[in-house]
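Posting for a labmate who doesn't have an account.
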Amino acid sequence: MIRKYYRLLKKYNKLKADNKKYFFMLFLSSMFAALLKVSLPLFASFIVSYATEENYEMAFYMIVFFGLIYLCYYFVQHLNYAIYTKHALYTHNKLQEKILDKVSNVDGNYSEELSQSFLVNTARTDIGEVLQIPDQCFDALSYFIMVIISLGIILHTNTLIGIGTILTVLIYLFFLNKDLDKRDYYLDNETLYQDKTGHLLGQVFEGSKEVKSFNMNEDLHQYLDHVNKNWSKMHLSRTNYENYAEILDPVIITVFKLAIYAFVIYLIMQGKYNIGTLVLIISYLDTIINYCYELFDRLNVLSSNTVRLNRIHKIFSYKNEHMLSFGHNDTDTIFGDICFDHVDFEYENKPILKDVSFTVKANSFTAIVGRSGSGKSTIFRILLRLYKIKNGNVYIDGVNIYDYSKEVYASNVSIVTQKPFLFDMSIKENFSLVDSNFKNQVKVCKRVGIHDFIMQLPDGYNTKLTQDANNLSVGQKQLLALARTLLSKAEILLFDEVTSALDIPTSKKILKIMKELKKNHTILMITHKPSMMKKADEIIVLDRGEVCARGKHKELMEQSKVYNRLQK
């Protein structure tokens, strides 16, 4: 059992989220408090013994010592609590930061491995419980030490009673550990079904239009009922074993305690012990029982936190299958020349790009076109370094994209998507995540033509966006996303179907902005709209993962059957 909790503390330390100084101080204060507390019944028995023998002077001395030990104990407990609070705050913030770093640097498969509800529940609930692990471990250890010391005192007083107490405690701890292991197994499964329910509700909320239009309500209820039935089974099994641990297992110690009381009273009647010894044995027996209950309480929390700790480790242990680490090239004078050199890419052993080669000159406007599944979005993901390629090379200004440092690359390649994501913060706060200079924010908003609209809002740039920015139109969201991209000062701008859901006036505005931006940016655009293709300086046509044609609109209309089909 001790090995189990040692492994738990070791696994906690692998998170590397605690302050070593506070960690060590927490351990020392817990142990010192335990030694003070376990000595109290001993001094209480001395007081009774001396008073019984009418040695009142020593009895008063013992009272003074008893009071001093009590004061020291409460002082150390106060110190322990203050250290725990500081350590908990540090660990909480550190773990939240580590999860944010992990989630913001994952590949596209992450959501398949871990659901959004799993992440939210872990960050919101599990971290708050897991940060208690060191304190609970040290408390459990201190209570275990106090049980051992108390058993030693009783063993010294009466060997038979001491051996009986040791055997009883061992039997109790054996059944307790067995019941907690079972409880943890069912708790883990219960939590998984809770995640499924949360994930389902989140998807229903996001797809509410489809749920209504296809009348999915009855089938969704059936699915939820199936999940709830499995959750109920796990919940009932878990509570049964909790009942065994909290109610049935302590009966073992209680029965033994009553037998010992009767036995000690019998020995006093025989004249073998005095009242002080009775107080000593009863005090330490009660102390052992209380300590065992407290030990159970700490082990109970630790056992449930094992499940929570495993969930946090699951987030951190995810391996980015398709991503590569960044290099150390800090050259930030990027002009924006792009070169794909015989690039092959596979996804789950399925070829997506086959021997793709093309170049894009700086300060140009290039459209990448093709049917769905032809590899257009994959090219963007490779340029964003979300995927690693199987063969070939990709260069920006003659430097392999995997050689650039993370900071340089992120500040020079940016994207605007068909459905841009904006945080439910104010407009200003969204911009400040990229550039906190308010003058720069106003400048780019004027450049994309959204400044006047923002100023008409009740709170201007301080207007808070609702979830998914639903208080804005699609066009307004696109313009805000474009302004945010320009704040990044990226040299290479990727536009992924940004005009597909826009009305004609807004599409024309976006196109006009793109033409202006190409004066000092490299623009790549994925589009299905023939009108947008015609405006590009050059068009790259993809078909089944290969570049089948490239050139201007008129040239491709004459030379490429694939491009002709796209126009129709």
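Reply:
Got it, the structure tokens are right above this. The chain has a mean pLDDT of 83.
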